[in-house]
Amino acid sequence: MSGLGGIPPEARDLEVPAATVVPTNGSGRGGVATGSSPAHDEVPAPPGDGTALLEVEDLVKYFPILGGVLRRHVADVKAVDGVSFSVKRREVFGLVGESGCGKTTLGRALLYLQPPTSGRVRLDGQDLHALKPEQLRRMRAKMQIIFQDPYGSLNPRMPVSDIIGEGLLAQGLKDHRVRMKRVEDSLEAVGLRRDYTRRYPHEFSGGQRQRIGIARALALNPEFVVCDEPVSALDVSIQSQILNLLLDLREQFGLTYLFIAHNLSVVQYISDRVGVMYLGRMVELAGVGELYERPRHPYTVALLSAVPEVDRARARKRIVLRGDVPSPVNPPSGCHFHPRCWLRERLGNPEICSTVDPRLHVVGEGHAAACHFADRIEQERDRAAKPVVAPASAPAGA
To answer: What is the pTM of this model?
Structure first.
């Protein structure tokens, strides 16, 4: 036997049998297996019965920019700019968008790891902004986060027992024996052995470290968990294990997730509803099947067109956006997406796009979009898309 703890390196991520992720290329789950403005119309409620566990209303998070000798406030980075949505119990709400659009900042602001500039966040009916520091500390037992980096999110100087048990200790669980029992139960729940408590992070593989991060979030028996790109740093085979583990834990413990990711196939597989962010705002929100089948915002259409097609025989069409994402310090007037919008170009550059900020409004059952011309998307997208030609194979013997 080679490797740490007598476990071969190639087997260290196989504590739990892997299940294959089966993303779809249509609506819903299942398919071919593969490796905001301050003002809003009423946003469609999440599907299912019961009340919303999380309610977000006009959430804003600005980061001040200081300049000059006296370090005066000269501008703001508008990371999150008036976002509203709700998440029901046991729902997986997926959040997608380009890097820098504010997804992670939104997730941290929901947990008050970075207090919002304005707006309201209600968890299980309680307004987090109105809580005193001690009340907020107790409320944190109900809301946890799984970080993106399984290497940087674990303290290399602490054993696993202290990493997972630290939150329990902060919540007042002083009894060492009871605390260790909770730590071991959490490890077992994520498919790791109970005797791993005295090991250190460097003794584990990337997939095992992410399982430890999940166990740390589970130890306090939370109701709401922010999953901040939890599989982006892992191999594809390990990603499938972690995704199915998260779904199993939701069923076992009744968890509710905000799942942040870049991989649209992953989001389609795990989510019940999906929100699309652009430059700090929510531009589209719908059920996963509805959004992937009938997107109603030009930015969402462009994102989905970039997803590689599993079936090579099917002609792939791509909408390539021009230019880079504008600076959140000085976003464009009107619709933030209008300088890059292919639909605006197809419609002859109407002035309303650059002068009037579109509200997130209902465009279908359970479907909302922030676009003045959402009803023109379907008839214009096929004309704007261009087929993607696969490179020719090299001749034999070349």
So the answer is: 0.83
